[in-house]
Amino acid sequence: MGCADLMPGISGGTIALILGVYKKLIQSIDAIKLKNFKTLTRVEFWKKINGNFLLSLLAGVLSAVFALSFLIDYLISSFPIALWSFFLGILVTSIFVLRRLVNHWSYLNLGLILIGALISFLLTQITPNSSEIGLIYLFFCGFFGIIAMILPGISGAYILLILGAYQTVVNLIKTAVESLGSFDFDIIIPTYSKLLIFGLGILIGLRVFSSILKWLLDNENDKTMAVLIGFMVGAIHKIWPWQEIFELEIGSQTKTLFRPISPFNYPEDAQLVLASVLFLCGAGMVWILDNQKEKNK
Known about the structure:
Elements (H helix, E strand, L loop, with lengths): L1 H4 L6 H8 L2 H9 L3 H6 L2 H7 L2 H28 L1 H19 L8 H17 L11 H15 L6 H7 L3 H13 L6 H35 L1 H14 L8 E8 L2 E8 L11 H25 L1
Antiparallel strand pairs: 1-2
Helix pairs in contact: 3-12, 6-7, 6-11, 7-13, 7-14, 8-13, 9-10, 9-12, 11-12, 12-13
């Protein structure tokens, strides 16, 4: 999940759904309430929120974020086709796997898939903002970014990219890792202060939105899953490995955008063999995880 959340195109929520821990994650977060903390003993509260599960999951996510931020940044710039092909395999196979989570198909559910796909598609068309990042703005970036991160199909990293905070957050993480062991407080204090504010936005956003998601999953499971699958369908074009750069003039401004094209029309080396292998690796990983999940049940 942490690795996926670093990628501007795939959601950690997608990985949680594949692994079969999505509903448990939402329920566990929703159980973190002041009422439970006051009325239950520490042991009861820890069990109520599935503390061991949340702690293990959080440790895995944070480990990936801090350990792989350098690697993901390098792979995106140096091996984009290979990396996006791998995640495309994960996303496409996930859609077929997750269709089983809709118990009863209807025209309404099919319509909700189309609506979810349209929303996801439109979100990925927004041009990234490059405004100055202040502490309050960083808090709201964390708040809205985490909502996207736990929604399958909507990439939290891409939302940060749209808000103009992605590179800032990645640089903060890199600086935090590099400053470990040093005592340069001129770097440590502002870096960790910004990460703390960003993390606070994440925690509050996660807590607020988890209650909404839990209610939807408990009361409107099929409709909710249909929309979430739609989000994933609408994100396919964004992580398509072969993209063409074009410029769009809006008034006096010129926007640089990307659109998916056929690998046979790609102006550079399309790396079809490597892309196919990594697509199959991603698809195979989903298939293995799904089968393992069914065995564990």
